[in-house]
Structure formats: C-alpha cells, structure tokens
Amino acid sequence: MQNSDSFRTKIVVPEFPWKISYKSRSMFIGSCFTNHIGGRMQELKFKTDVNPFGVVYNPLSVLNSLKILFKKKKFSETDLHFYNDKWFSFSFYTGFSHSDKDVYLEKINKKIKDSSEFLRETDFLFITFGTARIFEWKKDGQVVSNCHKLPATHFDRRLLSKEEIIDEYASFLKLLFKRKPEVKVLFTISPIRHWKDGATGNQLSKAVLLVAVHQLVSMFTNVEYFPSYEIMMDDLRDYRFYAEDMIHLNPVAVNYIWDKFSRSLLDNKTLDMIPEVEKILQAVHHKPFDVRSDAYRKFTEKILKDIQVLKAQQPYLDFSKEKSELLNLIDNA
Fold first, then answer.
1. What's the predicted TM-score (pTM) here?
2. How many Å apart are CA 128 and CA 144, to the nearest integer?
C-alpha cells in the first residue's frame, strides 16, 4: 500500500528475466527518448547502436527502419527526393540530408550496412514509440519517418489503430525470432508529449501505443515493457522535471529514469563497474592548465594505468579512443 507520507506514487519496475552486461550488444531505435537512454549507454562504453536513421516517432516508421536493416537494403537515386537544395530520403532524419546526391547515398548506405551488421549480432533491441499518428506521402501512400519541412498539403495524417500496430509487429517479431531466437526485445512509450495534437489527442495516441505494446508483450516470451511513460506521468508528475518548453524532459528526469532503467536491466557486476568507468571518463575530459607539466604527465599516466586495470577486469570495455587522446597529448606536449 502507498505510504500517505511520501506525497508521490512510486513506480516499481518489475524484475526482468534477463540482464545486460558490458559483453551485451544493444540497439536502441525510436523517438528522441531513445537518444536519452541509448546515448547514456554509449557514453558509458556499452556496445550500443542508437537510432541509425535518426529520431523516428511512429511505430510503422520504426518498423520500416528495422526492415531496411533486416534486408540490408541499398538505396539508389530512385529512393531519394530533392527539396530546398538538399537530397533526402523519407526513411532518414533531416540531419542526413546533403546537397550532393552521391555523398548522401554513400553516407546512408554505409550507415545501413554498419547497423544491419550490428542488428544481426545484437542481444537486446529497445524500441520506443512516441506517437501513434503517421504522415503518408500522398503520391504513393508511403509512411514517412520525417516530412523534411515539405508543405503539409503533400501528406495525409491519421491515427494508427492498435490492430495495425499489433499485426505488423507480430509478423516482424516472428521473423526476427526465427532468425535470432535469443534476442530480447524491450518496448517503451516515450513520456515526451506530442502537444500539437492537444491534451486529449496526445493521450489518445499514447493509449493506442500502450494497448498495442502490452498485447505484443503477452504474445512473445522474449518481449518485455519498461514503464518510462508511467515513471514520468505518475512518479515524477511535476513540471519541475520538464524542460522550459514543458514538453520535453529535463536532465533531472532523464537521470531518474536512467537510474530506474539501469537498476532493473543491468547486472550487478556492471552496476558496480559504472562508477569506475565514469571516473575515468571524467579524468580524460579534464582540461589541464599546462599539458607539458610533470604533474599532468603523472596524472595522465595514472589514468592510463586505471584503464589497464579496468580493462583487465572487463575485457569488453573499449577505451581505445580515450587512450589515443591521452597518448597524443603526452607526445605533443
């Protein structure tokens, strides 16, 4: 029973049947909330691929991204569009767009190749839905991941049904588990609100997503749900945990949800090691007054030794970038 003196409703995250370690490979794909958690995993040196197509908000666009990786599709000029002096694909975020068609194709095809190979070997697939509303390109009915600032008149906008989401993902998950039976899939619903739909419209969209996801969880043994949406809505439940726009999460909220996520999904050995990883990263990013001083040289040598010790404990940790930076500083001092 909830303690009346706590003045809040604490969300208890269920114990998951599997855990993540530094040996694990994880792919995060979906809305911008994915960047918060997946990005934190990358910072802490986990083997992680985050949003290879950029931020993707709706379930069908997320699924399209996964199918492209699954098939290792190679894009050609016929898959592209040109607008505002930029080449782009409706499957990729605007940040990929480029004025040179060949440069653009090379960039996105390399990303597909790399992430396709990563997905093939991944242990955990994290999927975050942001909205159940989709935009369809009127010319051919394609569901787009990003409208690339084209006029709204070029698209039809509608709300997905729970049946559409369930049917599409059930088919894909069966195919995924047939190819890689041991992979674990974890869904989340982004707590970031899509306020352009209004309060009622946002809640309706989230409700469709929640019903669809929980139906999928009940259908597969290797599929689970992490309650990031509920943690923000019912546990934190206060505007002081939002950014200035009162829609996105601020760092305090992200840290709180990360703490819940890490404690429920990372194994104990990994949790114990994270402070040591953070300590090394903070030391590497330290800006010295004088890189040529004996004090800084000794400081750097100590960090390199700490990396060596931690690497011996956990061979899967990769500090090659940090070691290179430190050695380069010493050599050029």
1. 0.93
2. 17
